[in-house]
Amino acid sequence: MHEMAIAASLVEHVLEVAQQNGAARVSAIELEIGALQLVVPEALELAFQAVTQGTLAEGATLKVTEIKAVAECRLCSTRFEAKIDDYLCPQCRQADVRLVAGNDILLKSITCEVQQSGHEKD
Amino acid sequence: MKKINVVESVLKANDAVARENRRRLDSAGLIALNLMSAPGSGKTTLLEKTIAALGSDAVAVLVGDLQTTRDAERLGRMASQVTQINTGKGCHLTAPEVAAGLDSLDLTGLRYIFIENVGNMVCPAAFDLGEHRRVALLSVPEGDDKVAKYPTLFQAADAILLTKVDLIGVLDYNRARVCEDLGRINTRAPLLEISAKTGQGMDLWLAWLREQQASATRVGL
Fold it and tell me: How far is Cα B124 from Cα B119, in angstroms, rounded to an integer?
């Protein structure tokens, strides 16, 4: 359900970076999505296509890598892989955690075609 | 072809506004609570009773709904400051919407701001609004399996309210199942059993709120 909001925010960033770099077109985007974000890749792809229409990023491929969730127990500091429905510390058997990975959506890179005639900015 | 490495959170624009909201609330000496649940879990009724107990001038409410000002009208009879945020098609509140809501309030003299999120058990959990505490509500008629079905909402909660507990006997509700699921998902948040209708458990909820308000404003959290 929140894929549209994520796609809109993503495309805003992508276009900002693309313009700063004098891009003529964005051809690929790499994204890391935390396992706890409940993002459905197909829904994100559809939302992405809708939001990029008529922009420099129209037709760009979206490469999504899922990042495993890592939790740190607030009581005994043990780090372990959390599952969406399981945050139980293997050491102290409590579910009182701070999430240290897998709860974010990161834009990793943008691949773009740079304008032929213009001067390329660094 | 040029590859540009970025490594930035896609929700950084939201998160930056959320931090600014929190800073504003801190400097006004307020605690903000984000109430999240499915539609119809009793958020508005709970707030009506809560405002009556805490005092209409101490509380402001930002109400998020896709459409209508019905909740704001109901709560406007109880609290002196209520702002309705209509999200249109948005299935959750965002930090900029809350920032605009804060602009509409006079923060002086307030002690609590309740942000009643859009009724939805999935999306609101992903968006920081600048709140200090997250409260998840689960009503008895929704069934005893919802903690396991929508774990992220409950994992991130600082308190979990089981509402409409006056219906437990009628609905053959398995309370132990909720506790068992929370045992894997969140053992830190207290589970408060409440009926806003009969008043059962309201004392525990109000005590929790006052404790959070005192500790948040003491440490400037």
Answer: 9
Q: What ipTM score was computed for the predicted complex, to two decimals?
A: 0.81
Give ∠ CA B201-B205-B210 in degrees, rounded to 5: 145
Residue B211 burial class via C-beta count within 10 angstroms: exposed 0-12, middle 13-18, buried 19 and up = exposed
The fold for domain A1-68+102-114 equals hypothetical protein PF0899 fold (3.30.2320)
Q: What is the C-alpha to C-alpha distance for residues B154 and A86, in angstroms, rounded to an integer?
A: 11
Q: pLDDT tens, A26-61? A: 999 999 999 888 788 899 999 999 999 999 999 999
Q: Please name which of B130, B133, B117, B93 lies closest in space to residue B38, comparing C-alpha atoms.
A: B117
- Best of A25, A48, A87 to substitute, by most chain B Cβ atoms within 10 angstroms, is A87
Domains in chain A: boundaries: 1-68+102-114
Give the CA dihedral B103, B122, A104, A113, nearest 10 degrees. -90
Distance from CA of A115 to the nearest CA of B (A): 10
Chunked in runs of 10, what are the mean pLDDT values of chain B (221 residues)? 88 91 94 95 94 95 89 88 87 93 94 94 89 97 92 94 95 93 96 96 97 80 48
What is the spatial distance between Cα B113 and Cα B105, in angstroms, rounded to a whole number?
10
Q: Using alpha carbons, select from B140, B150, B142 the residue that is nearest to residue B175.
A: B140
